[in-house]
Amino acid sequence: MKKLKLKELESCLQQVDTFESPKLLLEQYATRPHIAACMLYTIHNTFDDIENKTIADLGCGCGMLSIGSAMLGAGFCVGLDIDADALEIFHSNIEDFELTNVNMVQCDICSLSDTMSDTFDTVIMNPPFGTKHNKGIDMIFLKTALQMAKTAVYSLHKTSTRQHIQKKAAEWEVKMEVLAELRFDLPASYKFHKKKSVDIEVDFIRFSAKKVQN
Amino acid sequence: MKLLTHNLLSSHVPGLRPGGGFPLRIEAAEVRVRPVPFNAAFVSRLVPRLRWEALREAAESLGRPSELPPEPLPDYEADEEFLRRLHHVLLEVEVLEGSLQCPDSGRRFPISRGVPNMLLSEDQ
């Protein structure tokens, strides 16, 4: 497997086409190449959860995380998203990057039953945070991700929700580790916001998927 | 949609009996075969986790002669020929147009440009 440096990965991800008209109600925005690269690099180098693994990207959007995973040697990546327009962009990105081990499925993460238990080694995601009439959606994504993953879930959540997530993680009996604290600038949602973007603090978290595994 | 993806997908129509959503029946209108770099280590890791019967059925339903044995061969890790055939079926054959049918409910999910659309309509 080719050894990709962090800067090289970030450069490549800067070529990923992103949303032209992001749908605010779906909280659509592309994970910044720098953040995606750092996340994926950690997942790969510290935890070895990418190379030759099957990976699911929940709420994949234009596919930033899936594409980065493919570049770091993932065995197979599946991106899942509810929005056909986002998947259209993802599709063209896959062609541009000439990736042959990436697939995508259009679905609503919130209505996936638990019939897809343990279907992937790793789930990597930047889920919606629940700021647009969809409160609680971040936890639904997390719960589904934990069911789907055999080994680990890597996700981004607002730092302000950390305690709530810790409680849930304890309830679900999964180990939770905050790997980094990041600052995001998200596109502003309301016309009367003076600034073009809003800064929020975000945790990059690793969850071990199962308490007992052979 | 590659057959590896198909092997992981279940229908989530509400009210199905346990396991009633798998495997989805493939109705393919357009299939494409495209080479994908062979990764023996990866394919080998997949073997114990694949739902083998569903995979064979899927391959057969695509009109391809069954290139897979009824069960994974013993010592498959060392059997490159077997792994290559498995790689071909899992990763090189794609359904571009067609549909997936939920075995229990009969509900159909379209596949368009290689992407299955599993969205349930409002009344489901």
UniProtKB/TrEMBL annotation, chain A:
InterPro entries: DNA_methylase_N6_adenine_CS, rRNA_MeTrfase/Polyamine_Synth, SAM-dependent_MTases_sf, Small_mtfrase_dom. It comes from the Eukaryota. Residues 45-145 form the Methyltransferase small domain. One of its GO terms (molecular function) is nucleic acid binding. Pfam families: MTS. Belongs to the methyltransferase superfamily. PrmA family. This is Methyltransferase-like protein 5. It comes from Aegithalos caudatus.
UniProtKB/TrEMBL annotation, chain B:
GO terms for molecular function: protein heterodimerization activity. This is Multifunctional methyltransferase subunit TRM112-like protein. Belongs to the TRM112 family. The keyword Cytoplasm applies. CDD domains: Trm112-like. It holds the Pfam family Trm112p. It is found in: Cytoplasm, Perinuclear region; Nucleus, Nucleoplasm. InterPro entries: Trm112, Trm112-like. One of its GO terms (biological process) is rRNA (guanine-N7)-methylation. The gene is Trmt112. The keyword Oxidoreductase does not apply. It comes from the Eukaryota. GO terms for cellular component: nucleoplasm; perinuclear region of cytoplasm. Keywords: Cytoplasm, Nucleus.
